[in-house]
Amino acid sequence: MKDTKKKDLTTGPLLLQIMLFALPLTASGILQQLFNSCDIAVVGQFVGPEALAAVGSTAPLINLILNVFMGLSIGANVVVATLEGKKQPESISRAVHTIIFLSIICGIILTALGMVMARRVLVMIETPDEVLVLADVYLKIYFAGFPFILLYNFGASVLRAKGDSFRPSVFLIAAGILNVILNLVFVLCFGLGAAGVGIATTVSNAFSAVCILVALAREKDHYRFSPRLLAIDREHCSRIFRIGMPAGIQGMVFSLSNIVIQGALNTLGPKAMAGSASAVTFEIFNYFIVSAFSQSAVTFTSQNYGAQNFDRCRKTFFYCMGLSSGICILCSVVFTLFRIPLSHIYSNDPEAIFYCAERILKVELVQFLVNSYEITSGVLRGLGYSLMPAVITLVGSCGLRLVWISTVFQKFRSYDSIIAVYPVSWTVTGTAMILAYAIIWKKISDSRLTAEK
Fold first, then answer.
1. Can you give the three-state secondary structure of the chain, one letter per residue?
2. Is 331:285 a contact under the CB 8 Å cutoff?
3. Tell me, what's the pLDDT at 436?
4. Contact indicator for 352, 274 with CB cutoff of 8 Å
5. What is the spatial distance between Cα 324 and Cα 375, in angstroms, rounded to a whole number?
6. Would you say the C-alpha torsion 414, 419, 423, 429 has a positive or negative sign?
7. What is the reported pLDDT for 5?
8. pTM
9. Which of 9, 101, 254, 432 is a Cys-bridge partner for 303, taking CB atoms 3.0 to 4.6 Å apart?
């Protein structure tokens, strides 16, 4: 039986295909962020600024740990998409079961580490005493759901590698709706506060993971998942780590630098923490847009590189960069124009509202710069070059931000001196990443010309 959900990304109208692939990811990401915003809005409006700070301030720590393994899911996407481009069905089946097995193992390891390290790290980043207990409870509950988070993301990477971005998006939206409902039930009806938000998130993550497994189990071809076939294929596992681990390091160093920034923010008090956490929710809207087109860049580049369609690889870079940047600019302008009323969504505290609006004005408006390194690194990973983007990110983002916090912030010790680091680091990292892409693409082009001679 033919799999009607599988799409050939190596032929046909490329621009339309990218849009059809990326838009479900964009829509699900934006809707998911709306649902996540409900987490913050519920605790901010019905519990208080301390609970708001507890939920919002843990995001950098969660991302630090999670991004290492999310990088592996990118490696999984590249491996499967390249095999799809090369038309190697038997290898795809082994890769799929290796990927699912890896997600289960990594999820269990993450949960164990999180339970042990959560409070210690919160203390290390100088979380205020009035926030520490709530943040610790929320973080441990969130860590309990890591196996489900990885299972969904690794499984979704398999479906996207074959050209199916629709079903993973639908599952994520459904899980988000469930999360909102459970937030209201646990916080308003049972008075569980930040813990209730954590429980709702864990249950919704479990729901999305089950949906992905069921979808893979119902596949009609070599993508079909069967528990009895779970095993680690050494060749595929090695390539997943070779491509995915540098990508994970790239995400990790961003999160590490954000933890350092969060530590600096924590010294300014709960109001600054709450305002910054509120503003970040709007930045994440744009991040999901960028992420959707970055995932598109990885998948389209991988499949076409595997099929030796180099012209489509080049066009993928320009189409993804242009579309993502344009949508980001539009959203940023809207958020900036309406920053004051938007800030009231999360808090009624005048000081927290001021900090939120200030960050939207000075960071959100230039966030389109993120595309310069996210889209470019996605294309590079699709071409099989994953180490270089990680190194550039390590130096241009993490290194710069650490230096900034230890010098500029220490001199001025103000909210503005903290948030200014974002546009500066985006510009430096993006410039370096685009130069790296130009060098690598020239190398690939020269190799092709030599081979043709």
1. CCCCCCCCCCCCCHHHHHHHHHHHHHHHHHHHHHHHHHHHHHHHHHCCHHHHHHHHHCHHHHHHHHHHHHHHHHHHHHHHHHHHHHCCHHHHHHHHHHHHHHHHHHHHHHHHHHHHHHHHHHHHCCCCHHHHHHHHHHHHHHHHCHHHHHHHHHHHHHHHHCCCCHHHHHHHHHHHHHHHHHHHHHHHHCCCHHHHHHHHHHHHHHHHHHHHHHHHHCCCCCCCCCHHHCCCCHHHHHHHHHHHHHHHHHHHHHHHHHHHHHHHHHCCCHHHHHHHHHHHHHHHHHHHHHHHHHHHHHHHHHHHHHCCCHHHHHHHHHHHHHHHHHHHHHHHHHHHHCHHHHHCCCCCCHHHHHHHHHHHHHCHHHHHHHHHHHHHHHHHHHCCCCHHHHHHHHHHHHHHHHHHHHHHHHHHCCHHHHHCHHHHHHHHHHHHHHHHHHHHHHHHHHHHHHHHC
2. yes
3. 94
4. yes
5. 8
6. positive
7. 52
8. 0.74
9. 9
pLDDT in tens, 21-55: 888 878 776 766 666 666 666 766 666 666 666 66
Categorize the per-residue pLDDT at 119 as very low, low, confident or very high, splitting at 50, 70 and 90.
Answer: confident
Interval 340-365 mean pLDDT: 88
Residues with Cβ < 8 Å from 282, sequence gap 6 or more? 335, 342, 360, 364
| Tens-digit pLDDT profile for residues 261-304 | 878 888 888 888 888 888 887 888 888 889 889 989 988 998 89
Among 28, 219, 213, 59, smallest CA distance to 142 is for 59
Question: Residue 392 and residue 246: Cα distance in Å, rounded?
Answer: 11
What digits encode the pLDDT tens for the residues 174-206? 888 898 889 888 877 887 777 788 888 899 999
SS3 state at 414: coil
- Angle subtended at Cα 32 by Cα 294 and Cα 254, rounded to the nearest 5 degrees: 50
Asked if 74 and 152 count as a contact pair (C-beta separation under 8 A), the reply is: no
Look up tokens 């990477």; give the residue: 157
- The encoded tokens of residue 66 equal 């999670």
- Separation of alpha carbons 44 and 271, rounded Å: 11
Please report the pLDDT score of residue 313 as a whole number: 92
Mean pLDDT confidence for 122-144: 78
Report the share of the chain in percent with pLDDT over 70. Answer: 89
List the structure tokens of 86.
């090369």
